[in-house]
Amino acid sequence: MQSGDEVHTQQIRSTINARSPKILSVSAQGRSAQKAAFPQTLASRQSGGPCSAVALNTEPKSTSRRNGKQDTERTSSRDQDATLLVMRRGTRQNGSIQWSPVQELSTACLPRHRTMNPCPVYEKESKTLFLFFICVLGKTTENHQICTGKNKARLCYVTSKDRGQNWSSTTDLTESVIGHEIGNWATFAVGPGHGIQMKTGRLIIPAYVYYIHCRCFPCHFPLYVKSHAFAFYSEDCGTTWYFGERLSTESCECEMAEIVGQESKSELYCNARSTRGHRVEALSESSGAAFDRPHFAQKLVEPSRGCQGSVVSFAAPEEQDHCLTPNTKTWLLYTHPTDRMKRKALGVYLNKSPLTASGWSKPWIIHHGPSGYSDLSPCEEPNRFACLMECGKKSELEEIAFVEFSLGDIMNNQ
């Protein structure tokens, strides 16, 4: 389910590091750039149609590194033909990852619904991996829900206590979290991508809603529907969930990152899809309860209908302290297609001044061909990152690939 992309393959991915458990978001494939690890194809378009992905990266007590990848099975490239989530698990030794056969996540579903938009977040205190997703009734399309004003999506999650080896049954939060407000939502979705846990312990799940601003009376038909990014959040280790206020600017699929200032004050950064030529950025001083000062990022371009992108924050390297602005301890990375007209040339952007709207660098292109959705994630090794991406030679729907690179690679290729 992707802001009107009913014929576009939904592809999302995230990575989890279990020794220092945190969500890693990944989203890119394609050719490798200088010094970057050669991309591995994790899924390819076959006779059954493409699938969408979520990757998990865990490190067991042994010296090998285990990885898992979750996909959405589908019978065509249309979102309404998705069926369920699947996962692949791999082992990395000596720099090489071997992926296992596909495993179905049979508990992540509701009867007569299709499962979409996986979005994981790891809760450190309870050592619980939450995998959020939406379940949409039958083959109801996103466009049909928007036109009729009748939401058919459910907010759901499953959990794992053993880094994705086993999963709980599905918990449906729709009534308890959204409640009567759902009557104003034509439809909604989480992610796609990854959630985060802030340093205070608050869990953040990025989301977007097609909000019904005006209806026709007495027939109650929606007259004005607009998409807005927002966040679901929890302050008690995932026991109780709430939803925050919507961004005032029209915005859609988003990812979020925590920016820590020099005085250890945190702000939640939102980077959202737009159909107006540039990404929408906003900051929250209330950790997702509300976002202020939304604006268009002039250095982050969008194709005509927009495209999902990924963002992560990370500690600025100590040897680069002289580059820090007075109010930040963190930098941002962002991945997205760089072409203004088509979904192609996926690039990695660096922002050393994340509280400055003009702080984004020129992109480092890691795949020059057709490119689509992506998801970034920091690796356990400092200043190293992983990315999953949609890509191909003729279409971005051809395959999902995994690539790793370092901060040095990015800085040397700007």
UniProtKB/TrEMBL annotation:
Catalytic activity: Hydrolysis of alpha-(2->3)-, alpha-(2->6)-, alpha-(2->8)- glycosidic linkages of terminal sialic acid residues in oligosaccharides, glycoproteins, glycolipids, colominic acid and synthetic substrates
PANTHER family: SIALIDASE (PTHR10628), SIALIDASE-3 (PTHR10628:SF23)
Record's protein name: exo-alpha-sialidase
Family: Belongs to the glycosyl hydrolase 33 family.
Comp. bias (Basic and acidic residues): 68-81
GO cellular component: cytoplasm; membrane
Sequence ranges of Polar residues compositional bias: 9-18
Domain Sialidase as annotated: residue spans: 77-380
Gene3D superfamilies: 2.120.10.10
GO molecular function: exo-alpha-sialidase activity
Keyword Acyltransferase: no
GO biological process: one example: oligosaccharide catabolic process
Region (Disordered): 1-82
Provenance organism: Pangasianodon hypophthalmus
